[in-house]
Design a protein that fits this description.
Helix content is 36%, strand content 18%. The protein is α/β, with parallel strands linked by helices and 327 residues long.
């Protein structure tokens, strides 16, 4: 080999190495099959996720956390799938999450840290067990897009176009976020194989801010919720999109008999029972999953006392309800 040929080969080798360095580490590939099954989880602060994991010092030893459940033989079996054989908390790369709230955005594999304080492993929401449940029955890659902002009313903030008046800014932002993520899944999740996606379901868990406005918002909640479902389906071009409506637990737990809270619950159940929604919309009761303040990490009744068991069980119920709709 001549000196010139050696020089050419060295240059080619260096160029190839440069390409590899710029490309970064090789991608592992999409674990689940295509099309990607996309689920939208929407609502306000409860849907954001106020459940406590118990892995931080602040809540160490407190009741009503996932860590406390693991220490209870009667409950440990419920969440054993959240830890691997090494005792590490599981991160699922076959379930992706894109999360937006008033504090920013976060994306990645399903794990802790998609609660209200994005990235903080202290918190989780319904997305955690929901993701485990639906993926347990689907061979497809799952993508959860969670759009939840604290303190937002359906009557104003999420107001759907069909309700008339000013369309809610968070209705617009919810739809814009979903469309943005789906327009370029590869950008948001580099392991996406380009095999397409399918809008698979919508979960709505909400009620607090409308409950706080009994004279105006409460009487209109049922119709506004019906309009929300129809408008989301229309605007996402998914006319049969399965919808799960999570019951508003009330501001002080399962025993709340406040008239406005009862009215919101009844409105949610009535919306799901509309004849035009038969077989595609379901109402999930959540009040039995709310624990007492004494059995919880905090006294925030409006956030189900931040009880991790509550949030785990509600996510589980949402996932099972969604699978029934998907048949």
């Amino acid at each position: 080999m001549s000196v010139g040929e050696k020089a050419v080969n060295c240059s080619a080798l260096l160029a190839a190495m440069a390409v590899l360095l710029l490309a970064g580490p090789a991608q592992a590939g999409q674990p689940g099959k295509s099309p990607v099954k996309v689920f939208i989880l929407a609502g306000q602060s409860n849907m954001q996720g106020q459940g406590v994991t118990g892995i931080r010092d602040e809540f160490r030893g407190k009741p009503g956390t996932l860590v406390a459940m693991l220490a209870d033989p009667a409950k440990a079996a419920l969440i054993k799938h959240l830890r691997n054989n090494k005792g590490e908390w599981v991160e699922r790369d076959d379930v992706w999450v894109y999360d937006i709230n008033e504090f920013g955005t976060r994306k990645g594999n399903l794990a802790f840290g998609f609660g209200w304080n994005l990235g903080d492993q202290t918190w989780f929401g319904p997305e955690l067990q929901f993701g485990h449940v639906v993926k347990g029955r689907l061979a497809n890659q799952v993508l959860i897009i969670k759009t939840a902002w604290g303190g937002r009313a359906l009557y104003t903030d999420f107001r759907p176009p069909s309700s008339g008046g000013t369309v809610g800014p968070y209705y617009k932002l919810m739809l814009a976020t979903v469309k943005q993520v789906l327009a370029d899944i590869k950008k948001e999740f580099p392991n996406y194989n380009g095999g397409g996606y399918e809008l698979a379901g919508f979960v709505w868990w909400h009620g607090w801010n409308d409950f706080c406005d009994p004279p105006t918002a409460v009487p209109q909640y049922e119709q506004n919720l019906v309009n929300l479902i129809k408008d989301v389906r229309r605007d996402l071009q998914a006319p049969k999109l399965p919808v799960v409506i999570g019951e508003f637990t009330g501001p002080w737990g399962a025993d709340c008999k406040e008239p406005a809270a009862v009215a919101i619950r009844q409105a949610q159940a009535a919306a799901a029972a509309r004849p035009e929604f038969k077989g595609s919309v379901t109402f999930v009761e959540t009040h039995d999953y709310v624990r007492t303040e004494q059995d919880s990490p905090t006294g925030e009744g409006y956030h189900e006392f931040k009880n991790g068991e509550t949030y785990f069980l509600i996510g589980d119920a949402f996932g099972k309800a969604m699978l029934k709709l998907l048949k």
